[in-house]
Every structure is written in structure tokens, then in C-alpha cells.
Write a structure and sequence with these properties.
Radius of gyration of chain B: 20 Å
Number of helices of chain B: 14
CATH superfamily of chain A: MetI-like
Radius of gyration of chain A: 23 Å
Strand order of the largest sheet of chain A: 1-2
Number of helices of chain A: 14
Low-confidence stretches of chain B: 1-34
Distance between the termini of chain A: 25 Å
Strand content of chain B: 15-25%
Largest sheet of chain A: 2 strands, antiparallel
Oligomer: heterodimer
Number of domains of chain A: 1
Structural class of chain B: alpha/beta
Number of strands of chain A: 2
Helix content of chain B: 25-40%
Low-confidence stretches of chain A: 1-24
Largest sheet of chain B: 7 strands, mixed
Chain lengths: 304, 358
Amino acid sequence: MAAMITKNKDRQISGQTGTDSGSSRAKFNPATLILVPAGLWLSIFMLVPLAIIIVFSLGSRDELGRIVLGFHLDNYARFFCGPYLSCLWRSLCLAGMTTASCLILGFPCALWLAFFLGKKRQNFFMTLLTVPLWISFLLRIYAWIIILRPTGLMSHFLTLLGWRDPPSILYSPAAVLLGMVYNYLPYMILPLYSTLEKLDRTLVEASLDLGATGWVSFRRVVIPLSMRGIVAGVIMVFVPSLGDYVTPDLMGGARVMFIGSLIQNQFLCVRDWAFGSAVSTILLVIVAFGIWIYLRYAEKPSVA
Amino acid sequence: MSLSRRQFLTISLCAIAGGGVLNSCARKAQPPSSSTKQLNIYSWADYIHPQTIPEFEKRFGISVVYDTFASNETLIAKFEAGAADYDVIVPSNYAVTKLIELKHLQQIEKDRLPNFKFVMERFQSPTFDPHCQYSVPYFFGTTGIAFNKTAFSSPADFPRDWDAFWDKRLAGRMTLLEDPRETIGLALKRRGYSYNCVEEQPIRLACQDLSRQKPLTMCYSSDQVIVYLSSGDSLQSLAYSGDALQARRANPDIGYVIPESGSSMWIDSMCIPATAPHVGNAHAWLNFMLEPEIAAANANFTYYATPNQAAMKLIKPELLHEKGLYPPESVLDGCDELADIGTAIFLYDRMWTELKCI
């Protein structure tokens, strides 16, 4: 989705600068037909469910948990008046911290991959980066649980080093953040790397020739030029981590509720589909709005 | 009761697939053939002796399809979505009530179940179905305190009542169930209320107690309790009786006690859906499952308790003498059957969410 958005943006920008795109719009181009499969797919599996969610969110549930269609905003009012706001706030903080940590950890990695390695070794390390993605992410989370739990490998190791009764970080906020960053780091590095790799190296050299220090050149040349990759990476990490409920539940021991687990809970346990749909809609609006703002704001430097 | 056998992976994978849940369920519901020599069962995972189905197939020449679900809520959701291929399902107490109300069950013809007479008298009239018109009890159990004996200096120190979960000495090494009815229920029981309490004030008080207890809890989990207990990660857990005993299979230090102030009791029953395509075969299955030898084999394998009087003498002695599994009448009388509480469940759900949001 993020990639799609960036691409659209690209097209808009080239549309603004290009001259021939306007005239071809009037005539039907048979090449547009290649969009049919994807278009059908999107409208059936995305737009229809989306419409269902919005309709459900205006209804309510009966005593037996069945959905009763209606037209009122009670579910939305309930969300904004209850303790659910703190749940939303917590999720935003977690997603923000995950994104920031991934960016801080991922940027040097991507920089190193793109600038300091030969092409062959770049490919090798890129493969290495995607290896964890070959394994189900639930298995990887369970592996972390085995390492971090009170009688796990980590406390075993610390005890061997002479630390009696080491604390266990599993089921703490630190563990949740660790799991999230671990999961989403590749999604930050990949777009960053692909931007940095294409970055015109001579511009960096020029800035250095003109007297910029390494840091200034990084800050005023490399970062602005890689803004597109940063935006893509931030969106690819922020959006899924906002809705993620498996990692916080497993690594955090389900002790606190995040917005993702709230939605999951409404659908699978409480069977209040109406409220679950309302929360989903709210989350969707927030994410869409956030991306819109961010794209508008972040695209400026690279266009200028 | 629901959650102990819930397989978390299934749930999460389904949930990741999002709206695919019901879809995939509906697909799985299709039996491979619709011949009359067929029986489709929908039950919990690992809830039957592995030889039971082959024995039934051999004796009756009926082929059995055994699908599993992970929670009563999933079961109900599936029937609400129109599943119509199952002949036998195994819901728990309040789910039976809900399914009856939703008109998803049909009456069981008792004259076709000569073995029903083996069912203990107290289980012939459960509150959720007073005359066993729609359900035949399969297993029962309690929810109590499972603990690691090595964490306590002497047997006198072993937990005896719900207060044990507020014991600061075990901070960070206790788990509670990820189930509002059970966990809020224990806090209610501790204050002298019933598990089926429907008034707002007591439920609120119970949740306040739980929020004080929360910092001492390692996690809320239902599907990993056996692992936590047997590995020693958890020194004291709220656990279903069968789970606690299964944990002991791996770790002999695990004990299980039904708290003095009482706990919850649940019964999983076999029911025939209103839409069942093979009603005759379903009755044959129910009668077969009530045979003392079969009931005993299932109970010996799963470590859950059978309500079958005649099967009792075939139960392994070490299980039979386990007070947590087959408690004396007096203890059972102090336990509440988890009943359907109607719209009060909204209160539980809401307060549970609030507890998690703090």
C-alpha cells in the first residue's frame, strides 16, 4: 500500500512536469486493460469489506451477539468517551517508538550496505536480511519468548555469568518494543537501501569538495535525497505496527491492550462486531490521515 | 473452560487472515462426501482418545470427520455464519444456552441412548439444560489454582484460597487466564459473590482488586498455561483442572487445588445441531461415547473428568484419587456453574477492557 502511494505521488509529480500526459487521457488506451485483474481484486477484496465494516460500525449487537444494522454513532461515541483513548494513545506511542527505533537502527545499516560494499556483497547481505522473513513470524516471536522467559536461555546465561536471580524482561514494555523492532526492521532497511543505492554519489562528493564536513554532507545532502526511502520505510513500519496485536500480546503477556488487540477481541471473543468495526474505521481514518499529512509534508524537500 | 484447549496459533493465523475467518471455517465445514455412512464432529483439539474414532468406524461402518475449534465463541460464530454440516458439537455450559436460544440445537431422543443411564445423577440436570433435552455431558472440570510445590517452603504454605494471587512473594511469576468470566469471576468469588454475578457494583470492585493484582501477574494467558507451569516460568497459575494435571505429566512438582471459597465448574456437552445431516449416526455416536469403557479411555487419556458413573471404576487410580479432578460432592457444591448471564456479559467485557487499558 505504501509503495502504491509513493508511486501515485511519483506519477502526479511527473504529470506536473511532463507535457504529453494530458492529451492521452481523453482517448481510451487498451493498455489500461492490464489493470483489470488488480482492479477487480481490489474492489472485491478491499472495497466491499471496507463498505461492510463501515455499515456494521453504525449498527449494534443484540443480546446474543448478532449484528443489528442501524444508523447511529453510539459506537464512535463509546470509543471517544471510554478508556479506549488511552489504548489508542498507547498504540500510537508504541508504533512511533518502533518506527523511530527502526529508523535509527536501519539507516546506518542501509547506508553501509549501499555505500561501503561491493555489488556482490550487497546482494549477499540483502539476502541475509530477508532470511528471517522466510520463517513464520509467529515462530520467530516464540523463539524470543524461549530466550527471554524467566527460565529461558537469557536468564540461564546471566546466571552462568554469576548474576543471581536475573530479572526477566519478557512481558515488559521493553520486550514488546524489542519484538516489534525485530519484526519490522527489515521493512525499514529495504526501502532505505533501494533509495540510497540509487543516490547520485557525485552530489555527496561535490558537497565534500565544497567544504562540507561528513556530518553536514550527511545531514544536508544524503538525508534530503533519501527522503522518499525514509517516507516509504516509515509508512511500511508505522502502519502495520499500529495494528499489530500478536506481538504485543505474546511479548507483553496480554497485560495491556493495544488498539489491534482491542479490535481482535471485539470480533473473536466479545462478538461485538459493531464496536469492532467502529474501532477499525477510526484506526483506518487515523492512519490514512497520518499518511496523507506525512506525504504532503515529507515530499516537499525532495521536490524542491 | 473454553480457552484451555484453544490453540492460539489457529486463532492468530485466522485473525491475521482477518475477514477470512468465517470463510475458511465455512470451507472446512464441507465434509469430503455426503454419504449416509458419515459423521461430522466439531469439537476441541486433543479432547478424545486417539483410538476412539477408529473403534467407532470399525463397529458401525461409519466414517468420521473430526474438526476442531478453539473457543465457544468461535463455535457460536460459525453456526451464526451458517455452518450446517456438523452432526455432533461439544459446547460448554453457557454456549449450550446460547445455541439453544439461537435455535441451533435439536432435541436429543433419549430412547435412542440406552447408555444415558450411566451419567451421574448430578449431571443429568445441569442448570444450562435442566433435563438434558439438548445436551449429553461429556467431560467436566473446575478452574482452580495450579502451583509449583518447590516455590513454597512447606506444604502448610501451599495456596488454599484465591488470596494466594495477591501474595507479593510470587510477584511476576503468576499467570491468570485470558478470560473475563474466569478471572473476574475469581475476584468476585474471593469477595463472596457468585461467578454469575450480574450487578455492576460487585463486578467493579472485583476489577479494582484485579487492577491491584495486575503488577504481580506475569501474564494473562489461556493457551500456554501448561507450558508455563511445566517449565517453572509460572509458580502459580489460574488453570483448568485438566491443564494442571497435564502440566504435572511433565513436571511432578505441580499441584492443583480448588480454593476453599469455591471456584467455577464447567461441563462440556455433546449436542446435535438442528441442521445435522446424519441425525441417526449422531445418536449412535452419543450412545457409543457414553459406554463406560469408551468414556473411561477418553478420560484416562485427556486427564479431564468423566461424568459417567459406570466408567469410574475403569479410571486410573492415580487420577481417581486426585481431589482436584474428581472433587468430593461437598467441594463441587461450593462451585458455581458458569451460566449464561445475558447482557451482563457486556459489563464483564467492558471492565475487562478497562483493566487492560490502565
